[in-house]
Amino acid sequence: MRIHGEVKITRRDGIATQANYQKYQNYLSEDFHHRCGYCGKKEIVTTKGFEIDHFVPETLAPERETDYYNLVYSCFTCNRKKSKKWPTNDKNIMNDGKVGFIDPATEEFDLHLHRRPDGSIEGLTDIGKYMCSKAFKFDMRPIRELWLCSEILSRQELLECKIATMSPEESVEYININKQLKELYQLLFSKKE
């Protein structure tokens, strides 16, 4: 299974250059389908918020600081884990075939990493194993639980649609409670708690 599930991450064309890369936040959120480019975590299951990672670190490529095609929508944890890591130390070389990175907005990303049926992430190649174990430490994080939470929330949303057509008092209460819970999640997310 793909890290990002059924969605394909692609950066849109025709983005006007901004003076500050933070101004791309909304575009990136949409292009990355409201999930982390690296681990696939959905916005709804985090309270720490999402950030913008410079795929090729600013320290190596300051000229790409506001280059939309060098930006990755990233969860707080993946952004901190990757930080300024760039094993090749050459801004033009993502990896050496053994260590380094693959841009998550490319089809090549799926050749190196995949999601197991239990939701955990596995490296398929040396580069994938480096990203999984050394760079992002997917094997030491609750990746499986985050994926499971996302899946349960998706199923819950589908169930809410079915319950809404039944119209007993309990289903209305269930829907209201879940809406309140989602609003709280959004509040915590916006406060980066």
Give the low-pLDDT segments: none
Number of helices: 6
Task: Please trace the helix and strand order, writing H or E for each element.
Answer: HEEHHEEHHH
Count of discrete structural domains: 1
Strand order of the largest sheet: 1-2
Walkthrough of the structure:
The chain is mainly alpha-helical and 193 residues long. The chain has one domain. It has helices at 25-31, 76-82, 109-112, 126-135, 143-166, 169-190; strands at 50-54, 71-75, 113-115, 121-123. The chain has a two-stranded antiparallel ribbon. Strands 3-4 form a two-stranded antiparallel sheet. Helix 5 runs antiparallel to helix 6. The longest helix has 24 residues, at 143-166. The protein is globular and about 60 Å long. The two termini are 30 Å apart. 26% of the residues are buried. The mean pLDDT is 89. This is TIGR02646 family protein.
Secondary-structure map:
Blueprint: H1 25-31, E1 50-54, E2 71-75, H2 76-82, H3 109-112, E3 113-115, E4 121-123, H4 126-135, H5 143-166, H6 169-190
Antiparallel strand pairs: 1-2, 3-4
Helix pairs in contact: 5-6
Pfam families: HNH
Protein name: TIGR02646 family protein
GO molecular function: endonuclease activity; nucleic acid binding; zinc ion binding
Q: Gist?
A:
This is TIGR02646 family protein. This protein has 193 residues and is mainly α.
What are the salient characteristics of this protein?
single chain, mainly alpha, two-stranded antiparallel sheet, 6 helices
